Amino acid sequence: MKKLFFCIFLITTISSCKDHHKEEKATVQLYDYDVEQRITELGIELHPPKLPPGLKIKLAKRVDNLVYLSGNGPISHDGERTVGKVGTDLTVEQGYQAARLTAINHLSVLKEEIGDLNKVVSIVKVLGMVNCNAAFENHPQVINGYSDVLIEVFGERGRHARSAVGMGSLPWNLACEVETIVEIKD
C-alpha cells in the first residue's frame, strides 16, 4: 500500500512540475505572433552578418539583458554599398531606403547574437547618423527608414528613443550609420 501511495505522490509531483514548467515557458512568450515569421511576411531576408575587413570589433556586445549593436550601414549582403551625401548625391527617399537596409543588417546581427528575435523585449535607443552637408535638415526623415522597420517587425516594442544627427562624413562614404541598444529576455 505504501508503494501505491508513493507512486501516486510521485506521479502527482511530476505532473505538477510539468505544469509549472509550462507556466514558466508561457511567461517568456513576449509576442502574440512569431517575430521571425513576421519578418518573412514582410519580405525581409536576413543574411549572416559580415565584419568589414580590417575592423577588430564585435558587431554586437551583450551585457546582462542589453545588446549593444555596433554602428552599421547600408551594405547589402553581396557587398553593395549605398554611398554619398543625402541631400547632395542622394535624395531623402534614397537615404530612407539606406536606413531601412541598415535596420535589416542590424536584425541579422541581433539574430546571430541572441538566436531568436522573439527574445526582444524592446528597442531601447537608436542613434542615427546621416552623411550630409551642413545645410541638410531632414535627418529624422532619413532615419525614419530604420525606425519604421523596427516598428513593422516588433510592433510597439520596436518604438524607441532616438537621435538623428548629421555628419560631415561617414566610413566608406556610407549614406548613414546607426547604432542601437536592445533589451532582451532569455
Written account of the structure:
This protein has 186 residues and is of the alpha+beta class. The chain folds into two domains: 1-30; 35-184, RutC-like (60s Ribosomal Protein L30, Chain: A). It is built from four helices and five strands; from the N terminus they run H-H-E-E-H-E-H-E-E. It has helices at residues 2-28, 35-41, 92-114, 139-154, and strands spanning 60-63, 66-72, 120-131, 161-167, 176-184. Strands 1-2-5-3-4 form a five-stranded mixed beta sheet, covered by helices on one side. Helix 4 links the parallel strand 3 and strand 4. Helix 3 (92-114) packs parallel to helix 4. It is globular, with a radius of gyration of 22 Å.
Relevant terms:
alpha+beta; five-stranded mixed beta sheet; 186 residues; Endoribonuclease L-PSP/chorismate mutase-like domain-containing protein; 5 strands; 60s Ribosomal Protein L30, Chain: A; 4 helices; 2 domains
Write the SSE topology:
Layout: H1 2-28, H2 35-41, E1 60-63, E2 66-72, H3 92-114, E3 120-131, H4 139-154, E4 161-167, E5 176-184
Parallel strand pairs: 3-4
Antiparallel strand pairs: 1-2, 2-5, 3-5
Helix pairs in contact: 3-4
Look at the structure and give the CATH class of the largest domain.
Alpha Beta
Please list the strands of the largest sheet in the order they lie side by side: 1-2-5-3-4
Q: What is the element string, with H for helices and E for strands?
A: HHEEHEHEE
Shape: globular
Return Rg in Å. Answer: 22 Å
Instruction: Output the CATH homologous superfamily of the largest domain.
Output: RutC-like
Q: Any guess at the CATH architecture of the largest domain? A: 2-Layer Sandwich
Write down how many β-strands occur, each being a DSSP E stretch of 2 or more residues.
Answer: 5
Distance between the termini: 44 Å
Mean pLDDT: 89
- Proportion in β-strands: 15-25%
Summed up, the domain count is: 2
Fraction in helix? 25-40%
